[in-house]
Amino acid sequence: AAHLVEPNAALAEIAAQMLATAGMTCHLKATDLAILAAPSIDADLVTLSYVLAEQPQAQIAEVVAGIAPHVAQTIVIVEPGTPAGYARILAARAALIAAGLTIVAPCPHAAPCPLAAGDWCHFSVRLQRTAAHMGLKDASVPFEDERFAFVSAVRTPFAPSPVARLIRPQTVEKGFVDLALCTPAGLATRRVPRRDKPAYKAAKALDWGDAV
User: Fold this and answer.
1) How far is CA 92 from CA 67, 101, 127, 133, 143, in A?
2) How many CB atoms lie within 10 A of CB 27?
3) Where are the alpha helices (H) located in 34-155, listed in sequence order?
4) Is 148 helix (H, G, I), strand (E, B) or coil?
5) Which of 151, 148, 127 is nearest to 46 (CA)?
């Protein structure tokens, strides 16, 4: 069963109809996210997708800390891939760590973010636009590249953390591939030469955000 929290009753009803069409049972709470500080149910999976922006920055840690005890296994928080969105992710990440959860993505560690001031961790996914979507946006191409930042944490670790995360699109040159990585020891760059054919092929096939 899915438990939905949405302050807009009309949007909550649309979500309920979509889930019902997919054969899922859902329960609606047309109220503010802050009520989850005392939810009535624990959940195997909690998702907060593009919603922390609706909370004052100073209250994000408090809201996430209130939700964390009710995460039975996994929580995933997604925000726009902007400096402001990443600042919200950092606040949420710190609250999850303080609550005793284990960060599993995208960070391969629980240490402070090693990126320099002015930089931010984010990724990109290409989304196909429907005809209706193109019309609403007055778009001329059938896709858009959505930039996002995220953090995921678990109650009980179920697998080793990745050795590293590709935090930038790789640079492919004639004789090598450069990888910008976040590792348990901090930021690192790995150059994979073409003469190492298996590693070179694998490096070229990586997507931005992949575990390495």
Assistant:
1) 11, 12, 26, 31, 30
2) 12
3) 57-67, 83-98, 131-137
4) strand
5) 151
pLDDT tens per residue, the chain (212 residues)? Answer: 777 788 888 887 888 788 888 887 777 776 677 655 555 678 899 999 999 998 888 999 999 998 999 899 999 999 999 999 999 999 999 999 999 999 999 999 999 999 999 999 999 998 898 888 888 888 888 888 999 999 999 998 877 666 899 999 999 988 999 999 999 999 999 999 999 999 999 999 999 999 99
Instruction: State the Cα–Cα distance between residues 14 and 163, nearest whole angstrom.
Output: 41
CA 168 remoteness from chain centre? 15
Q: Do 174 and 165 form a contact (C-beta atoms < 8 A)?
A: no
Say what the pTM is: 0.88
- Give the integer Cα–Cα distance in Å for 71 and 89: 17
Q: Which residues of 166-187 are buried (b: 16+ CB within 10 A; e: fewer)?
A: bbbebeeeeeebebbbbbeeee
Q: Which tokens is 128 given?
A: 């196909």
Token pair of 130, please? 């429907």
Say which amino acid occupies 179: L
Short-list 84, 108, 96, CA closest to 187: 108
Q: Which amino acid is at 12?
A: A
- Residue 212 makes CB contacts below 8 A (sequence gap 6+) with 162, 163, 164, 165, 166, 179, 181, 206
Distance CA 153, CA 65 (A): 13
d(CA 121, CA 1): 33
